[in-house]
Design a protein that fits this description.
Layout (H helix, E strand, L loop, with lengths): L58 H7 L15 E4 L5 E5 L5 H9 L4 E5 L5 H9 L3 E5 L9 H18 L6 E6 L6 H17 L3 E6 L7 H6 L5 E4 L14 E11 L2 E8 L9 E4 L2
Helix pairs in contact: 4-5
Length: about 280
């Protein structure tokens, strides 16, 4: 359900909502020179809460009203839309670029979406995936060096720049890879909190891939304030966050799927009813 509330000119605020708890709503706020606009764009079939707000205030009062929102930032130009992924969608994740021909082959094989790394995703590949009718889950590679809070903030800035360049819309899940994380326990936790904090502050919804050699417990992963959803890697001994997972990687890893090396995944909803929010063609 979308709620649109008009107020006096001079400011626009877009709130992107998700989750089941008033204190668990990721928000992206966009300021411009028009009006106040509040809308739920996630397309969840049965949202458990709605935004009830009156924002007919001056810009200063709106800032005060939203000061407890997780993050606020001006949005970049966007391509496509962010919406929830249908349950039981087959999703292929690939480190290598996917050609237009391969995208069509995947679609014809029943694949509904792909996970592609921002580090090497081009506009040409994006357009080919969209032309084939595939959704995109933006991914990021796992760092191989010891982790710190400052590294997490810097890592987020790099990912934000790439997401803006390629046109990823605010409100989409952006995956951060928590796999084989190195460093002291406190430093790993500080990195995880910093990178998810900065992504959420800039309008994206952090999705955590929980892979092999994860030093944090399931309780610690779930307690990361800005981590919104979790993806179970296909390895053994993966810690289970309290809310469960919403994407499952299906062994064996590095399969040959429609002639390309990739991993197969299945999307669903976690124990709180939250679904992955992917990037789709308009």
């Amino acid at each position: 359900m979308a709620h649109v509330i008009r107020a006096r000119p001079r400011i626009e605020a877009r709130l992107i909502l998700s989750g089941c708890d008033e204190n668990d709503i990721p928000r992206a706020v966009k300021f411009s020179s028009r009006s106040v606009r509040c809308e739920d764009i996630l397309g969840l079939e049965q949202p458990r809460n709605e935004l009830l707000a009156s924002l007919s205030r001056s810009s200063g009062e709106i800032q005060t009203c939203l000061e407890h929102a997780p993050r606020m930032v001006a949005c970049e130009a966007m391509v496509g839309i962010a919406r929830a992924c249908p349950l039981f969608t087959k999703l292929v994740d690939s480190l290598s670029p996917i050609s237009i021909a391969a995208a069509s082959t995947l679609k014809n094989a029943g694949i509904g979406a792909v996970g592609r790394y921002l580090e090497n995703l081009s506009a040409t590949e994006r357009d080919g995936l969209f032309a084939a009718g595939l959704g995109i889950l933006p991914l990021s590679e796992a760092p191989s060096s010891p982790l710190t809070k400052d590294f997490g903030l810097a890592r987020a800035e790099t990912l934000l720049a790439k997401a803006a360049t390629i046109g990823v819309p605010a409100g989409a899940h952006l995956m951060v890879d928590f796999e084989a994380q190195q460093g002291a326990h406190a430093d790993v936790l500080a990195y995880d909190e910093a990178v998810t904090f900065e992504l959420a502050r800039n309008g994206y919804v952090p999705l955590v891939y929980v892979g092999a050699d994860q030093p944090l417990s399931g309780v610690e992963l779930y307690a990361i304030p800005d981590a919104h959803l979790y993806w179970r890697g296909g390895s053994l001994n993966i810690p289970n966050p309290t809310c469960g997972f919403a994407i499952w990687q299906i062994p064996p890893l590095d399969q040959t799927i429609s002639g390309m090396h990739a991993d197969m995944n299945l999307t669903g909803a976690d124990l709180r009813g939250r679904q992955p929010i992917l990037w789709w063609p308009s």
